Amino acid sequence: MRITLGTTGARSGARRSAILYAWEDGDGLVVVGSRGGSARHPAWVHNLRTYPRPTVAAGKRTWEVS
Q1: Whole-number Å distance between alpha carbons of 47 and 49
Q2: CA atoms of 33 and 5, how far apart (whole Å)
């Protein structure tokens, strides 16, 4: 499923969003933090490590996750 992950910028504190694909796993979602095989993580991974309370939007539903 396609989701929008809303994070807080680690340095700026501004709201950021990333379009990702997720898979359902029981009551949770699994996303992969990849930059197409790059040795560096995507920026949203760094943002989550600093501010671990993102939002997820899928379809018409939006919720906070941890």
Answers
A1: 5
A2: 12
Q: What is the DSSP string of 3-58?
A: EEEEEE-TTT--EEEEEEEEEEETTEEEE---STT-SSPPHHHHHHHHS---EEEE
Q: Note the pLDDT of residue 45.
A: 94
Q: What is the pLDDT of residues 22-55, one digit of tens each?
A: 999 998 889 988 888 899 999 999 999 999 999 9
Reduce the DSSP state of residue 48 to 3 states and report it. Answer: helix
pLDDT at site 46 = 95
DSSP SS3 for 66: coil
- With H, G, I as helix, E, B as strand and everything else as coil, classify residue 47: helix
